[in-house]
Amino acid sequence: MTETTGVKRVFICGSALRGQPDHGNLQSATFIREAKTRSLYRLHAAEDGWHPAIYEVSEGGVSIPGEVYELTIAQYEHLLATEPPNMYPADVVLDDGEVLTAILYPRELVEKYDWLDISDLGGWAAYKASTAKQ
């Protein structure tokens, strides 16, 4: 968090993306740019596609597309309060080397429930668009 400005940059890669149902959870946060992570992560459709589950891996990762937003402290706290159970903030590395906070999900829970791996489908928005056509 940037203490001098009272804002935090966050990487969004799931249901709060533009055009997704939880985008309103960002309130009036400032969109900065589209971005992708380095190939260090996997993405799953948790709870039968209810929400995304991203976690870091030591091998076999992909680049996850998303968006960078600048949030006030109040907006950031609201975002965290609206996240599904078990999700937690953690650092992710973008493809340009920038390190930002994202909302991750415990890998052990993904594996326990064997949720669908959507890592190679082009991100959360692409996955949701593909399921809407079915």
What does this structure look like?
- With 134 residues, the chain is of the alpha+beta class.
- The protein has one domain (7-119): Hypothetical upf0131 protein ytfp (Roll), CATH 3.10.490.
- It has helices at residues 73-82, 107-113, 124-132, and strands at residues 7-12, 30-36, 41-46, 51-56, 65-72, 88-93, 99-104, 116-117.
- The strands form three sheets. The protein has a three-stranded antiparallel beta sheet with strand order 1-5-2.
- β6 and β7 (99-104) form a beta hairpin.
- The longest helix is centred in the middle third of the chain and has 10 residues, at 73-82.
- The chain is globular, with a radius of gyration of 14 Å.
- The N and C termini lie far apart (41 Å).
- 34% of the residues are buried.
Strand order of the largest sheet: 1-5-2
What do the pLDDT scores average to? 94
Total helical elements: 3
Span of the ends, CA to CA: 41 Å
Number of strands: 8
Shape estimate = globular
Counted up, domains total: 1
Whole-angstrom Rg: 14 Å
Which homologous superfamily in CATH is the superfamily?
Answer: Gamma-glutamyl cyclotransferase-like
Helix content: 10-25%
Relative strand content:
35-45%
Biggest sheet, in brief? 3 strands, antiparallel
Query: What's the level 1 CATH class?
Result: Alpha Beta
The CATH topology, please? Hypothetical upf0131 protein ytfp
Structural class: alpha+beta
Element pattern in H and E: EEEEEHEEHEH
Unreliable stretches (pLDDT < 50, length at least 5) are none
